[in-house]
Specification:
Rossmann fold; alpha/beta; five-stranded parallel β-sheet; binds phosphoric acid mono(formamide)ester; 2 domains; about 325 residues; single chain; four-stranded parallel β-sheet
Length: about 325
């Protein structure tokens, strides 16, 4: 196995030369090489945040939100600003989209004004409809089934901490059917990582998403295994990923989910079964004392704040890559 290295541009900066997709709707839109290059660009942008501010000067992006957001909203807007662009954060209810206009018509019109469109919504099909109709890149800022922007930040945080992603083992604890788990699984597959998903019955990862990851892992490297036992899952893990029990679209299931997932809390007792080097992960927002304790979240093994911080440089690298590639293709 060779380790992917990044290509440098004439200016000595990392540049993405892999197969850049038109949109980012799910992690599997990125091939392994392109994913590494994006992380390299994000790392460079983290070091020199304003080094790319001329490239897209005068551009604009629209960020449509149908659900609440702190990290995604602010990181995308700040990333656009650092690239010389204006970002418009658009609440769906303030748009005609919230009053009957179709996602496709909205995307078609907004493509006339913007350089990229990001959308946070419920049904993943809405993201796909917008991407089909848009003539500018569309970024999935979270749907019920995928959260690719989060996974980019997760990978960068792990790579910074461990120096490599190759061969790392991560235990994902809790809702194996969540958008965070789905995207992180695909990210592991593209990075030759090993993922152990510990989920109770009824919270298993979708077989199709699992199958896609296994197919890539079969020839690229890495593995995914499933268990219902969180203690077994963390036994050889270098990172333990906790996930919120009641996500934004599941509030009506609160009592049932809290009961089903009660044994899947990431606390010091669970981490005691992991190797000493193991770090704790969470995509935030967290419900302290529910899926993760404050001791872990704020403790010395927490990678959580680095994951959150890395939302900005990874958003910057993603927007820069998608928009500059789209401009080249339409020039
Ligand atoms: N992790 C994440 O997407 O956070 P927000 O919901 O605050 O955007």
């Amino acid at each position: 196995m060779t380790t992917q290295t990044s290509t440098l541009s004439e200016t000595g900066r990392p540049t993405v030369t892999g197969k850049v997709p038109g949109d980012l709707l799910r992690v599997s839109d990125l091939d392994p090489r392109t994913l590494v290059e994006l992380l390299d660009l994000a790392a460079a942008m983290k070091q020199e945040p304003l080094g790319w501010e001329r490239d897209l000067r005068g551009g604009a992006i629209g960020c449509v939100f149908e659900k609440p957001s702190t990290r995604t909203r602010v990181s995308l807007a700040t990333a656009a600003h650092r690239l010389g662009m204006k970002a418009m954060v658009l609440n769906k209810e303030d748009m005609q989209l919230g009053h009957g206009e179709t996602p496709a018509d909205t995307a078609r019109v907004l493509s006339s004004y913007l350089d990229a469109l990001t959308i946070r919504t419920f049904d993943h099909a809405i993201v796909e409809q917008m991407a089909d109709a848009a003539t500018v890149p569309v970024v999935n800022a979270l749907s019920n089934t995928h959260h690719p922007c989060q996974s980019l930040a997760d990978l960068l945080a792990l790579r910074e901490h461990f120096g490599t992603l190759d061969g790392l083992t991560v235990a994902f604890i809790g809702d194996g059917a969540s958008n965070t788990c789905n995207s992180f699984l695909a990210a592991c597959a593209a990075s030759r990582m090993h993922l152990v998903i510990a989920a109770p019955p009824g919270y298993e990862t979708d077989p199709e998403i699992l199958g896609e990851a296994r197919e890539l892992m079969a020839h690229h490297g890495g593995s995914v295994s499933l268990t219902t036992d969180p203690v077994e899952a963390v036994g050889s893990a270098q990172a333990v990923y906790a996930e919120v029990w009641v996500s934004m679209d599941k509030h009506h299931e609160r009592a049932e989910r809290a009961r089903d997932l009660a044994a899947y809390r990431v606390d010091d007792a669970l981490l005691a079964h992991a190797p000493g080097e193991a770090v704790a992960m969470h995509c935030l927002p967290a419900v302290r004392g529910e899926e993760i304790t404050s001791e872990v979240l704020d403790g010395p093994r927490s990678l959580v704040w680095r994951q959150a911080a890395n939302r900005l440089p990874t958003a910057q690298a993603l927007l820069h890559t998608l928009i500059t590639t789209a401009r080249r293709r339409t020039a």
